[in-house]
Sequence to fold (422 residues):
Amino acid sequence: MNHKMLSIADQIFNELEHDILTGVYEHDELLTELKLSETLGVSRTPVREALSRLAQEHIVEMTSKGARVMGITEKDIEDIYAIRYRIESLAAKMAAENADEQGLKELKRLLDLQEFYTEKDDHDGTNAADSGFHQALYALTKSPTMIQTLGPLHRRIVKYRRVSYETPDRAITSLGEHRGIYEAIAAGDGEKAEELMRVHIEKARKSILGK
Amino acid sequence: MNHKMLSIADQIFNELEHDILTGVYEHDELLTELKLSETLGVSRTPVREALSRLAQEHIVEMTSKGARVMGITEKDIEDIYAIRYRIESLAAKMAAENADEQGLKELKRLLDLQEFYTEKDDHDGTNAADSGFHQALYALTKSPTMIQTLGPLHRRIVKYRRVSYETPDRAITSLGEHRGIYEAIAAGDGEKAEELMRVHIEKARKSILGK
DNA sequence: AATGGAATTAATGTATACAATTATACATCT
DNA sequence: AGATGTATAATTGTATACATTAATTCCATT
Fold:
């Protein structure tokens, strides 16, 4: 087992990133180092490190009044999907070409998990499993560059994807699309995985943006 | 005049990023907070903030022995070019569609600067102007997502691009390619800018990787 | 000489203290 | 009333002190 010990700063970074991207904190909200450190029961130092790393990723913006939560506009979502359309399809192809047995098993596990939550009509569970599926696929590319590039883009829209899963139809079709992608990857068919991913991204985009 | 005051941490981040990506520090070299703070004449705090942000971008890796400088493999370069091929062409199209007068002037200025250095056979100057041209083009897209995504990818290979400019032929053809892209953008011809950028990226890739 | 393990060292991680800057409130002047 | 200046407060930025952990050294034991 590889239980890596995370520093307090790392834990706070993960927690704040999740809370901001899922909407616990809202757009333009000001997070001050002192308040956060008091709430969390730690000193300002690790809080400050977490915030400066969030600022690095443009998730917050440091100001003299506190770290301002950056919102995500509709145009941001459009741009993210335009970029993902072009490179996540490549990632699917690379995954098909480089997949190892263990990674494939993990991808399958997340697919099954998504099916489980979709049948239970659990939107949060479905959304989490969806996120896991994509991140696992990135890992299959064996490309740190791809993982670093797509990971943040995908995480940024988790809140909006969540909303789209309230359309029950979307949850079911998304599951089917994932299944097709998984099978193409498992079969080592890069071309097919690439094309199916293109279709999937375009449908997800339409489901979220409605156009 | 907009002389923005940068914090010490920001300055150190910029300096270290530049020095690592241009090869002042080499692969696997260990940077310790204490030594850096003594060398730079500041406390560990801003040094530490800079390093943790560099780790966030996978430019260094934090270990118990210091911040280890991460190297860039040939495969990393291949992956970066594969991604840029697909989205920097989109960026060129977006730049053509969203360019404003001031941004175009800046792009032209950097093009002229590249010409100046190319004629003088100044590889470092040419490389710097090349980098500036691409970053200015990203800015023209008016898309924070595009800027955030492409910026780091482009900066990562500055050292290797520098080497490719030692082939005088490459410097001249690159200049010509940039000129074509600039003119397509200035003319508002998105399709052409997109196609010319694809060609440019592919040629640059070949020039660096030799295959 | 090889091995094991305590002592030491060197590094990061965290807390606190201090400095500098910016925002706010309030009084004063016109 | 509105502008302006000044004191106060709130917040970030930096330095330093302390805690913890991992590597290294070195000595004792076999």
User: Anything to note?
Assistant: Chain A is about 75% helix and 5% strand.
